[in-house]
Amino acid sequence: MKLFIITSMMNWFRSIALETSWYDYALVLSISFAVLLIFRFIVLKILFGRKKMNGEKMQAVRFFINWITFYSLILLLFIYFSDKNWMRYNLIEIGTIDITLFLIIIFFLIISFAHQLSKFITTFFMPHIYERYQLDRGMRFTFNRVFHYLIIIFAILISISTVGIDLSALTVFASVIGVGIGFGLQNIASNFISGIILLFERPIKVGDRVIVDDIIGDIEKINMRATIIKSIDNEHIIVPNSYFLEEQVVNRSYSDPTMRVIIPIGVSYATNPELIKELLLQIADDEAKQTDSVLLEPKPFVHFVGFGASSLDFELFIWISNPNDIIYVKTNINFRIYHAFQMYDIEIPFPQRDLHIRSTDWAKLTESQNKGN
């Protein structure tokens, strides 16, 4: 098989060498490229010169013009070289289909065009629809992914049909792929199917704050095989999609993003518990007035945990609107508690140990030490 492929490639290069006038081809390529660059410059100059555009519209127009310029160049060259023998030279034969460079270029050109079309639509058109219907970030990502997959699948089917392959013959190919999945591609297939389930069922979505193996982070992207999580330390963790369906994952943003935060406090036994309750509730109320992160409903609550070894133990329960703010809220609350305790001379105890030395006969102890020396 390898010898056959090498022989076919050598014959193909020989056909190019016999037929090609490299000077003419280089001239055609240069002229085509120059003409299209001039066309691009003139069009952009006319569009941007007549009326002002905002950054998004300007970016969309520039993307579209660059896109048209590139594919026009490819199309011109493709038409010019399409009648050359080396473009239609049989590289390999699959059944009754002769695979030539001409067919290969058509195949990848259609897929490339579909990819760019999907990118253009999801970048510049779909966001306006999302804004109109007020869809969240996760739903937008799901629609973009599904739309992209459908466009690419449709493009692949068109490409296969264009090169002359009977789509009904793909059943044999599908059976081969099925055997491959059963043996060596099982994990890849499992992760791919899990990715589709994640996009539609949405137990997690882009932007969610999750905890995976004690790592806290935000879902950044759900790909075909794996999901990318950006931790609070700005590290990127790549997790197989099947993990989210097979293991226990904490999603702090699922359904209701509000979250209860518990802040433990210990004070001296000489402190009035009622004063501690009043101070903690006042601190929670002040923090809620200064930031939208802390909620007044459900109301903050002070839990008198009990009597510790060296302190009266309390817990302040507060609710926050966004789990991403938990670190900032805890920090601000702790600062407020510290300053309030300083103002009211409230002692924060720490563990203490008392050393008791039992009475002994110092004369015998000194005598035994002297004997030892």
What report would you give on this structure?
This protein has twelve helices and eleven strands. With 373 residues, it is of the alpha+beta class. It folds into three domains: 2-172, no CATH class; 191-251, SH3 type barrels, CATH 2.30.30.60; 259-343, 2-Layer Sandwich (Alpha-Beta Plaits). Strands 6-5-4-3-7 form a five-stranded antiparallel beta sheet, covered by helices on one side. Strands 8, 9, 10 and 11 form a four-stranded antiparallel beta sheet that branches. Helix 4 packs antiparallel against helix 6 (137-162) and helix 10 (273-290) packs across helix 11 (326-343). The longest helix has 29 residues, at 22-50. The protein is elongated and about 115 Å long. Mean pLDDT is 79; it is low at 1-5.
Q: Count of DSSP E strands? A: 11
- Secondary-structure element order, as H and E? HHHEEHHHHHEEEEHEEHEEEHH
Biggest β-sheet strands, sense, barrel:
5 strands, antiparallel
Rg over CA atoms: 35 Å
| Gap from first CA to last CA | 91 Å
Helix content: 55-70%
Number of helical segments with 4 or more residues:
12
Secondary-structure map with pairings?
Layout: H1 2-19, H2 22-50, H3 55-81, E1 90-94, E2 97-100, H4 101-124, H5 126-133, H6 137-162, H7 170-183, H8 186-201, E3 209-212, E4 215-222, E5 226-231, E6 236-240, H9 243-246, E7 250-251, E8 259-267, H10 273-290, E9 294-295, E10 301-307, E11 312-320, H11 326-343, H12 362-372
Antiparallel strand pairs: 1-2, 3-4, 3-7, 4-5, 5-6, 8-11, 9-11, 10-11
Helix pairs in contact: 2-3, 3-4, 4-6, 7-8, 10-11
